[in-house]
Amino acid sequence: MYWKYAVRRLIHVALTYVVIIFIFSALFNTVMETTLRAQITERVQGEIVSRTQRMAPEQLARFREERTQHYIKLYHLDEPVALRIFWRAVRTLSFDFGNSTIITSSSGERKVSVIVAEAIPRTILLFTVAVLIDIVVGVAIGIKQAQKPGGSLDRATSMATMVVYGLPTWWLAMVLIMLLVYKIALFPSGGMHSVPPPSGFAYYLDFLHHLALPVLTLVVVGFWGRAYLTRNIVLGTLQEDFIMAARARGLPESKVLYGHTMRTAAPPIVTMATLSILFSIGGGLIFEGIFSWPGMGRIAATEIGAGHPVQHTHGHRNRRRHQADPGGPFAPAMAPLQMSRPQESVPARSRTRHRPPPAAGRAKKTASFPTRTAVTLIS
Amino acid sequence: MQHPRPGLGENITYWEDNPKNAGPSWVNWFTGNRNTPQVFLRHPEVGEEKKGDSQRVTAVFRYRYSYSAPPKDLIYRATAKGIMNLRVRLLRPDGKELGLLDKVYVLNSETDLRIPLGKEAVNRALEFAQPYQKGALTTATRETLRSMSVFFAQARPGMLQRPVPLRGPYEIKVTAVLVGKDAFLRGQQLVVAGDVFGLLGTDSWGRDIWSGAIAGVKWALLIGLVTAAVSVAVGVLYGVASAYFGGWVDALLMRIYDVFQSIPFLPVLIVVSAVFKPSFWVLIFMMCLFFWVGPVRTVRSIGLQLREETYVEAARALGASGRRIIFQHMIPQLVPYAFASMALAVPGAVVSEATVSLIGLGDATVVTWGQILHDAMANGAALQGMWWWIVPPGLLIALMGMTFAFVGFAMDTILNPKLRTR
């Protein structure tokens, strides 16, 4: 009765999903409420400053009242909290993701579903490609390791696994950017294309050039762990009695390995691989930030944090702006990440000479307008 | 060899004299002693003479200069009180002597003096260089003159335009005449402000990165060990309880587990930190809240096997309570596994803390490796090629991860005899 089990699992998964959406909805509503109100006051104040010359005091007061009400309505702050939590969750569950106030898709659309549909392929291109490479390399090395446990390859690879075990991927990314972008100008510093993107076949070459360093980083950190796990699974199977029996029958070693061992060892390896392919779609908040990769992680980061539109051009002006005006809890976060992103048109050599102005220390944390999308994007 | 000033306190003046964005001193090994390293001369030869109300304090600092680029400055520091005439003279290896400072200080209370001699002696440097100059000095030369490049250059024509370093022993002689009953001058030291600093250089504020990296060890250990211990302990208890009680309890516990398993850690933390002031303990608490799910599945499956063991059945037949069976009979079987997963959970916690700090949501009051990397990113260290700011903290994170991975994997091999290679 496998199908009964499958149906039960599916119901469980759906239930879990609903609960998580509600938790997120509650988290965002309660947490963001105060900061949201403060932001509204601030924004209205900003609108008023430009009008003080032209308007009479009572007119100004009315204008302030109007605008505040407008924003309170816009962000549904006039409804009871429980209701807001509930409806936000319901809307999310019914795949009505609403519109983003701060991100637009490349065609200028504000619908969250469009923005996400645009970001997912980019993330897949980066992370899923990296995961696929690291599955191929990892499993191949893992099997080789298990064939000669304690051999030099096994010892070297196991050692490397432990060395990279606590290595933060984003740190390796930083170091590789410093080394292979600024010191030796091998790769572009980030983004998906040069600005402006070349046309024709060169467009794809340019894209691959931009893709190379992030994928390389992910693979270098990723495949050791997979190799080690594969090794452990295969090694465990190789010591089973039926393998001894197969060898005793005089079967060739390749037959023993691929015909008998891998048949038993494959399911957990395949499960692991499938899971990591699935998880790769979520992208990486930090990693995409470091490489300016406009995928899922980046929009999540922007939505949670920033109160300014996403700008992928990363000119010098943007950088100052980030320092002077941290837009949200994540803005001080993304600002330092974008520091390493000078204009694409500046040749790498002269970049190293450029010293950016010292940042104003730790940026103050002010939360900004969270939109409905924030809930959906990260859940 | 003189060592850089050790110690990292709460005192922010600690890095006041340090050069900013300076590389490590040992870079000189590869560049042929190009840059002057930062040196703190703290033990001058001090002489004192007392005559009635006035006293004469002398100090001689010896410094051997053997680099190509001159020091950035000579900073004289002391603690003094009373009316004091302070004279500083520089004796060069070529026998030439020049005064750097001759000033009267009136100090009514105990004062910490910090005198940048280079700035004080600009005119003196011009006078010194004048005889080796053809014609009058242009205004541009006057204004861009760095007195140190004159003091540490060979006295010969063109020394302003193309200074050749004069290597050898220098002496800085300080003579102070103090007037006043309780006047004193003590704690004299001379800072040779250099271009390279200590073991790992400095950051954009002049903070010593080696000190920061070492201070980070204790925080990383604390975060890693506490988080790993708490979350693994909770996870093991949770898994065992789920396995032992079974039925609807198991089903409920596993659903709760599923929820926690599926919530992404980082976005929640970002949202939460918008409200809570990011503090060290809040961060540890949040990590425990999300990391306890790690061992649950494995522990539950082991627990399901243990539950059916005959000794558990016997204990139950004897009327042992559920608590007794769990703690006396099941948990001891799981202790080795728990320790292995604790060891393997430490690097995860350290990396998480670093990640959270990197994006600026960590506790800014403690010096963690993540904080150092955050500052490095915020100041464009990668762009400026300041590897000494980026590489060491990350290497230490990796090193700590490696250490615990060795322990964890070794335990894993012991627990799982099939993985033995001999």
Low-confidence spans of chain B: pLDDT under 50, at least 5 residues?
1-9
Total number of helices of chain A: 15
- Predict the CATH topology of the largest domain in chain A: MetI-like fold
Beginning-to-end CA distance, first to last residue of chain A: 32 Å
Radius of gyration of chain A: 26 Å
Q: Outline the biggest β-sheet of chain B.
A: 6 strands, antiparallel
The run of helices and strands of chain B is HEEEEEHHHHEHHHHHHHHH
Oligomeric state of the chains in view: heterodimer
Secondary-structure element pattern of chain A, one letter each:
HHHHHHHHHHHHHHH
Mean pLDDT over all positions of chain A:
73
Overall shape of chain B? elongated
Look at the structure and give the CATH class of the largest domain in chain A: Mainly Alpha
How many helix segments of chain B? 14
Q: How many beta-strand runs of chain A?
A: 0
Instruction: Assess the beta-strand content of chain A as a share of residues.
Output: under 5%
Mean pLDDT of chain B: 84
Largest interface: A-B, 72 and 60 residues
Count of the separate structural domains of chain A: 3
Structural class by secondary-structure content of chain B: alpha+beta
